[in-house]
Write a structure and sequence with these properties.
D-Maltodextrin-Binding Protein, domain 2; single chain; alpha/beta
Amino acid sequence: MDRQQLSHLLIFETVVEEGSFRAAAKRLNIAPSAVSYAIGKLEESLDVQLFNRTTRSLGLSPAGKVLIRQTASALGMIEDGFNAAKATHDNVSGLLRINTGYSAAKFLISPYLGAFAEAYPDIILDLVIDNRFVDIVKSGYDAGIRIHEHVEKDMIAAKIGGDLKSVLVATPKYFENHPVPCHPVDLKNHRAILYRFNEQRTYVWEFEKGRKKLTVTPPEQLVVNSHQLVIDAVLQHTGLAYIFENYVKDEISQGKLVKVMEDWTPPFSGFYIYYPQQKMRAALRAFIDFFIAKNR
């Protein structure tokens, strides 16, 4: 592989992370035509098509999936090396204010806080956990982390981590006394443990199967604003809970909880780091690159 192919491969990886040629061009600060040219040259050199393109969507072809799977780890190591070397030269420093919801903080940020502090000792990270929808510009934040559908359209956004999946769960004992639901309409006959984002809004139960999308408000048994309390309550056979799978994967694997209606709960696009369309500070660039690399 020559240096030009490596450059094209890095552009290819950025397109995969951003989800479009235009978003990749913004992140790389190059013209969209340059991204198209690089992908075309890479496809030409490999004699394969890397993306399935339509006027409304962009997805990886089978060859593209193989390429990103086989090269992502090596590219991540290269990027980590560049970031570490750049940090020693640039002495990236200053206060960095990030607003994030609890789930993103728990699964994507918290596991690597020590490593980030070691890599960038001169960055003061002010991490605010807030499940409300916050105007990060008015509130004085450098960036936010939210599910993609909750990111303002005028922001620049980069995906962090993989797709998410919510699961509908209850205990085996609960299902000894209640029928197993097979369709969202069945939930009207069940008790629900609801999660409250803030004072005004509870988590809406949304289901999808093929082209069908349904929103359900099941009978409330309990409403709490803590994921841990949702888990505690469902383990006490209180009712059904609809929660990110990451929170309950251990309980599921141990047989303490049972997943139902899995055909109605497909994965969806996960979390994004987003920030205003303006010149990026070095500290923010370091934060974004570091945590995206760690969550590949």
